[in-house]
Design a protein that fits this description.
Layout lengths: L12 H7 L18 E4 L2 E3 L7 E11 L2 E10 L2 E9 L6 H6 L4 E8 L2 E7 L5 E8 L2 E7 L7 H6 L1 E2 L5
């Protein structure tokens, strides 16, 4: 880790990206100049976001039957990162939560020691989905321009339970 690398961020994201089946292998990786704190909800935040992104949206998800949560979006020009944290019966287990999302060219990976799937979002960009813990699921979508950052953003996630 270099002094400019945020805490909890791998010093070199290339091996991790290669392990994820080439997620962003052809996209250069940008580094934040200083640690970031990007809060999605009171029980989930990110410690890394690519430089230049600003919070541009967010709010409440639900409550719908079996799901509630929060979402947040950061963007700049054509770059964007969107994160959803969902709680409830919909995220009771990995198999059920995984079925909730359409992921094209899905590849199973592990994020923060948990099963995950990464691939193309049907609306464009890249998406990574995982079950943070029973009852809490996470979905991170990035624009194609930030595909090389997806795994680094996901591994920077923090939650008070399980970290």
């Amino acid at each position: 880790r270099t002094p400019a690398t945020p805490p909890g961020t791998p010093a070199d994201p290339t091996p991790a990206a290669d392990q994820a089946g080439g997620v962003g292998a052809a996209v250069p990786v940008r580094r934040a100049a200083a640690p970031a704190l990007a809060v999605v909800s009171d029980d989930f935040w990110l410690t890394y976001l690519p430089t230049g992104l600003a919070r541009g949206g967010g709010g409440t998800i639900g409550p719908y039957p079996g799901v509630e949560g929060r979402w947040a979006r950061w963007s700049a020009a054509h770059d964007h990162v969107e994160v959803r944290v969902e709680h409830g019966a919909v995220a009771a287990g990995w198999a059920r939560y995984r079925e909730r999302f359409a992921v094209r060219d899905a590849r199973p990976i592990t994020v923060r020691g948990r099963p995950a799937v990464v691939g193309e979002h049907p609306g464009g960009g890249r998406v990574l989905v995982w079950l943070e813990r029973a009852g809490t699921g996470v979905w991170i979508k990035v624009s194609d321009s930030l595909a090389g950052e997806l795994l680094t953003i996901a591994t920077s996630a923090r939650a008070p339970v399980g970290d």
